[in-house]
Amino acid sequence: MASAxxxxxxxxxxxxxxxxxxxxxxxxxxxxxxVDCGVHSxxxxxxxxxxxxxxxxxxxxxxxxxxxxxxxxxALDVIVATHRHAxxxxxxxxxxxxxxxxGEVWVPFVENPDDxxxxxxxxxxxxxxxxxxxxxxxxxxxxxxxxxxxLAHEFAANSSGNAAAAKRLVTGAFANEGAVxxxxxxxxxxxxxxxxxxxxxxxVHVLGPSRDADQLKRMDPPKAVRWLQEADAEALAGxxxxxxxxxxxxxxxxxxxxxxPPDLIKVRNSMHLNDMAYDEDALLAxxxxxxxSVNNTSVFFVLNVRGTRFVFVGDSQQGAWNHVLDDxxxxxxxxxxxxxxxxxxxxxxxTPKRFVEDVLGENATAMVPVGFVKRWASxxxxxxxxxxxxxxxxxxxxxxSPVPTDTVEVGADNLWTQAVFTVPD
Length: 425
Description:
alpha/beta, 16 helices, seven-stranded mixed β-sheet, eight-stranded mixed β-sheet, 425 residues, Metallo-beta-lactamase, Chain A
């Protein structure tokens, strides 16, 4: 006769980032999964005024794995890197991972180097992030740094510069390098998206990201970025650009007042050409769209423990959620879930209202991986989302302000918060 199965979910607190260690025990077997490990560059948690480095979190995860191992060897059955934003994968750049035995790595199918279509998309996302970051940096040089420019820079930077972490994940550069199975999910074979574990009655159902052609188009970098590239082509092209007029017609800036009629200078200034090339709102809008595009590549899955379901969504936003909620089988898997990892740190553009009000059910546990970022302090987590969760009598556990109880344990210096669920046979 099967015994009760326990599910322990430990939410580490790097700050504004995600890192979850899931441990499932039942029938004498143990299965461990790590979901993400990263932090936003401007959202690190502070302890006594000092920012917590992501390496401290990496070390804490590995120490926990050592403590729970039989022979002192840290091991994970699965690592899930939901998507390649820095606040989800930056910690995997740390070489300490070379001491960890890893069975499988799960990443979004857009990371598959053998899929020409997804590589085109992956390349577009990377190149767009790079170019947007350059545009924002250049704009900051010609005008005062504004809130809009700062936000645009943070969105673009979060999508780029994570090559070392991404490489470790897709090459399986862990202690058993060469023996790590890499899964690009969801698989084209639907049967392979229901993944059994060694623990009896425990299965992972991968529901996203969508492989639908229309959804793939929405993941592609927004066209708004392209006109920005054209508008700023002169600034980025440097000496290699092709000049519109012959050099004889060029007037150095220090000679303009002396050689150009005042009325013509007035007309030129009225055109606000610099504003066209460095439109802060347009840069912010394009960076926000890029952020959404990458977020919607997130691996979206349900851990199903004998009918008790635990929902992990990465940073999935509206399009990705619609793919799940509009499909009867997928919707059923997220209905009345016992646990929900709140997407995108509780921001306004994730967690649809209809999911909370019509699907989630009463008394679920909602873990919110949120950290303090000054400019988002009043908006993340979104107060309407928190109110909706409270209205459903959810047990809300925030990484930045956890409250220890009989069923919730908090580590020293708020390094982690842990909840244990018991699923009867």
